[in-house]
Design a protein that fits this description.
The chain is an alpha/beta fold. The chain has a single domain, classed as TIM Barrel (Alpha-Beta Barrel). Helices cover 47% and strands 13% of the residues. The chain has twelve helices and ten strands. Helix 7 links the parallel strand 8 and strand 9. Helix 4 runs parallel beside helix 6, helix 6 packs parallel to helix 7 and helix 9 packs antiparallel against helix 10. It is globular. The protein starts with a strand and ends with a helix.
Amino acid sequence: MFTGSLVAIVTPFKNGRVDERALGDLIEWQIANGTDGIVPCGTTGESATLSHEEHERVIAFTVEVVKRRVPVIAGTGSNCTDEAIALTRHANRVGADGALLITPYYNKPTQEGLFRHFKAVAEAADIPIVLYNIPGRTGVNMLPATVARLTSVQNIVAIKEGSGAVQQASDIVQMCGDRITVLSGDDPLTLPMMAVGAKGVITVTANIAPADMARLVDAFAEGRIEEARRLHFKLSPLFAALFLETNPIPVKAALGMMGKIEEELRLPLCPMGRENRDKLARVMKEYGLI
């Protein structure tokens, strides 16, 4: 259902408020450059610092702008199951095509707790669910066996696997088969994860290089392996530079350098350090983005 290069889109701010004009322009640019789906209000979208009203508005606005041209997968995760249900139901009401739910952070639930959390959300909201496993952010790793259990829930259709372990993605593919779609949650691992059965990526890098990310995924899917490998190596400097500091600090700096957004973050995130910013600027100049 959800495949290809799907952008984990930033939330632009201007003077402390969501900049809807810039967000709309980013969405149009993404679609024009071959991006296969828009994912608002994820980690890259600074969902942790959005008010509930802002969160709901960003999702509704994204759906309005996209107009069904590509899928919209709304970030609706929370470390409170009831809150995740409420956010997911809202995404369904405003017309999102799917909901991306991160494993509950800070609580550190057991595998049984993870199973019950996702099952409860999925059963309470009639919308396709994409699981999101990223232990580096949450402090808990959802194991392949738990993912396999969750495939028994009809509307759990995909997982963004961000553990950083290709073997874990391989195990999910092997255990679940076609019952769930695996998407890479690590841009540098897109190619190796597709080699073991992933069908695409939810990507940070597409924020600044949407066409090349889409070409990489398409090339592999179409059997043009050498072309996919060439694009992987071309993109590799960007993969590294965009994680010199905590995401989305570098990607917002990059988009600011490109003139696409105001370089504005919300605390506790702060502007990129000068040394790392200079490194990012050098990579972007070499890539031809600025």
